[in-house]
Write a structure and sequence with these properties.
Length: 417
């Protein structure tokens, strides 16, 4: 007969060990996930990094750019009349006075227009002269007709008055008296009507003569203007200055208004600079800029800000304040510091290529012992050619990595070797 063997307590525990080990392992994994540090790390050589200090210091709000010296004014040369280039009187780089001839043109069509205008003027003058003669003749004829009517009316009035007396004395018949009365009244009426007609004709001819005189005067002015167009075939300088450009050749056909060159006003100079569009809202007329030439510092002032942005930059014109550099020439380049505001105390860090990757939104900050660098969110404010202004995220005395971050990818901790 078989006997049941009872399991010992140790044997029962051995049976549950796998479950207990699994539970412990599960708890360890949960603890690691909750309390462990999962930040990705990357080992880097500290000699390949550029490290800068976070400082509380004076932040100078300025931007540095390079500007090119230009004449204070550039005048375009554009002939009012077109034609063929017959002569280049002066060459590029020549100093000219206002009114000096630069280029002479020829235009045969304009010569023909002058001849036609003069011929038309002569024709109108002859027509006016003939009209004046005809009007004078008509005036004489009208005066003769008026005189005859006056005499005829006067005679018929005398006859009527005589017949009236004779009729009263019963010496003539009533019919003769009435007929003489009717003849007189008809003659007087005809005289009145003819007088009105002659007066209206005189007014009309006077108005006609005035209109013809006005037309003739306009034609004379037209001839003068056409002759002046002939004078404009000589392209002249509009200012005292230097002929900076003349783009014409002998025999070339030039159209009216076509740009053929430019005049540089050398009475003064300006400096034109290209500035990053980041500053377009802060650059305004009247701001002061400085540059150094030799051992001297010179001042400029913003004269004009062009609103158009091209290739990430906008143009700005500066004029000199006070002394000008010696031997200033068009085309020279000056390195300009444009002041955007007054210096202020701020937390600053050195400029670096890290900004191209982060956009100033985060940076690597070194630990106290310098063995590690941790990624930290920051906020950058203003910037100048040497420093960034830090608004949030950094404290004076800390150190940061300012060199490029292209090789760090998405790592959050750098282990420095």
């Amino acid at each position: 007969m078989d006997r049941v063997i009872e399991k010992t307590k140790t044997q029962k525990l051995k049976k549950h060990w796998p479950y207990m080990a699994g539970a412990v392992l599960f708890l360890l994994i949960i603890g690691w996930l909750v309390f462990g540090n999962h930040a990705s790390t990357l080992k880097v050589n500290s000699d390949e990094l550029t490290i800068g200090d976070v400082q509380q210091a004076e932040f100078k709000d300025y931007v540095r750019t390079n500007g090119q010296v230009m004449p204070i004014q550039v005048v375009q040369i554009s002939p009012e009349e077109g034609g063929i280039v017959m002569e280049k009187v002066v060459e590029e780089g020549t100093h000219v006075k206002k009114g000096d001839v630069i280029v002479r043109l020829s235009n045969s069509n304009l010569d023909l227009q002058i001849l036609n205008a003069e011929a038309e003027l002569a024709e109108k003058q002859n027509l006016l002269r003939n009209t004046q003669v005809a009007m004078q003749q008509d005036r004489l004829n009208n005066q003769t007709e008026q005189a005859q009517l006056d005499m005829d009316t006067h005679r018929k009035q005398r006859t009527y008055e005589q017949n009236q007396r004779l009729y009263q004395e019963k010496l003539i018949s009533k019919e003769d008296y009435i007929q003489s009365q009717e003849d007189y009244q008809l003659s007087a009426k005809k005289r009145s009507l003819v007088s009105k007609r002659l007066k209206q004709d005189s007014i009309y001819r006077t108005v006609q003569m005035d209109q013809m005189e006005d037309n003739l005067d306009n034609m004379r002015k037209n001839v003068v203007l056409v002759r002046q167009r002939k004078d404009k075939l000589e392209v002249r300088s509009a200012i005292d200055g230097e002929l900076g450009l003349l783009d014409v050749e002998l025999g070339q056909s030039i159209q009216p208004g076509q740009k053929i060159g430019q005049l540089n006003d050398l009475s003064d100079y300006k400096v034109q600079a290209q500035i990053d569009e980041h500053y377009i809202d802060r650059v305004r007329q009247g701001l002061i800029a400085t540059f150094t030439r030799g051992d001297k510092q010179y001042q400029l002032q913003v004269r004009k800000v062009y609103p158009e942005v091209r290739e990430g930059k906008f143009r700005c014109d500066f004029v000199f304040r006070g002394e000008r550099p010696e031997n200033i020439r068009s085309g020279q380049t000056y390195y300009i510091d444009l002041e955007l505001g007054q210096p202020e105390q701020a937390v600053i860090i050195p400029r670096g290529t890290f900004f191209q990757t982060t956009g100033g939104q985060w940076i690597f900050v070194l630990s106290a012992d310098g063995s590690k660098a941790y990624r930290r969110t920051i906020r950058i404010g203003r910037q100048n050619p040497q420093h960034y202004e830090v608004l949030e995220g950094l404290e004076p005395g800390e150190r940061v990595v300012t060199s490029g971050y292209e090789a760090f990818k998405d790592n959050e901790i750098l282990l420095l070797k």
